[in-house]
Design a protein that fits this description.
The chain has 289 residues and is mostly helical. It is built from nine helices and no strands. The radius of gyration is 31 Å and the shape is elongated. Belongs to the patched family.
Length: 289
């Protein structure tokens, strides 16, 4: 926003901070419980940040909508209305994410198990901080706006006074105009979905088309699931121009019928000059074969 009173930079920053607090809390708890930290866990903060910022936008949108409905209402009723609108959506998205990652802890791979534990716990903390910490920040930001306080200095801004210079108005109000900015109307994106997109998708023929498209999508998804093969192709881990790719191609072409190579490592000192020891090693190799 151009208005230096209604600018919500700190609100957005606190939304990101909320995700950061969730990452710190979950990592601290998991490390305290002795869950191994693997390198893949370092990618978890990006997932948490995406979900946390999404929850932040939902909360802010619900708050703005409640504010337009009840301009004269108390802060308590505004926050109650915001949670009534936003909490359900935030809860469902968090629940599905947490279930998905905690189901992943059943895998036999320890690295994947650690990643799912860290990330699933972080989603829980992200939900808690969004419902508590960020809700409190919304209220504090609203009180700052009501008090006509600057977004950066938090000093009270004098609006509408003739003696204020253009520079003062530009820095403290947002424009050279001596008139305070008016409350903003409905967001253009909300207007588009309400007046144009909503009536379009509820049209009878569009509904039929949507059902057909979803049926085709579902059929393609089921077919794709039948084509999934477990495993990993090591060729996909190398660059396209890497010398490793021709090696894997030749290995698959000439040696695939022999199966994987098996190696036996003897970790103790062995008297190879002793004939009985050599015979024992050969007997062990024959048994393995």
């Amino acid at each position: 926003r151009l208005s230096c009173i209604r600018n919500n930079i700190w609100l957005a920053s606190c939304g990101v901070l909320s995700s950061g607090l969730a990452v710190l809390s979950s990592f601290g708890l998991m490390l305290f419980c002795g869950v191994p930290f693997v390198v893949t866990v370092a990618n978890a903060p990006f997932l948490i940040l995406g979900v946390g910022v999404d929850d932040m936008f939902i909360m802010i949108a619900s708050w703005e909508q409640s504010l337009r409905k009840k301009e004269k209402s108390s802060v308590k009723s505004l926050l109650a209305e915001t949670y009534a609108e936003a909490a359900l959506s935030v809860t469902i998205t968090t629940l599905t994410d947490v279930l998905a990652f905690f189901i992943g802890t059943w895998t036999a791979f320890p690295s994947v198990r650690s990643f799912c534990l860290y990330t699933g716990t972080a989603f829980i903390f992200c939900y808690v901080y969004t419902m508590t910490f960020f809700g409190a920040v919304l209220v504090l930001n609203h009180k700052r706006e009501q008090g006509n306080r600057h977004w950066l200095t938090f000093m009270r801004v004098d609006v509408g006074q003739a003696e204020n210079s253009c520079l003062y108005n530009a820095c403290c109000i947002g424009s050279c105009s001596r008139q305070p900015s008016q409350p903003e109307g409905e967001h253009p994106m909300s207007v588009f979905f309400k007046k144009y997109y909503g009536p379009f998708v509820t049209n009878k023929w569009i509904k039929v088309l949507m059902v057909l498209l979803y049926g085709a999508y579902l059929g393609g998804s089921i077919y794709g699931c039948t084509q999934i093969r477990e495993g990993i192709d090591l060729r996909n881990l190398a660059n396209d121009d890497s010398y490793v790719i021709p090696y894997y191609d030749d290995d698959d072409k000439y040696f695939s019928t022999y199966g994987p190579r098996v190696m036996v490592v003897i970790t103790e000192s062995v008297d190879y000059w002793n004939e009985s020891v050599r015979l024992g090693i050969e007997s062990c190799a024959q048994n393995l074969e």
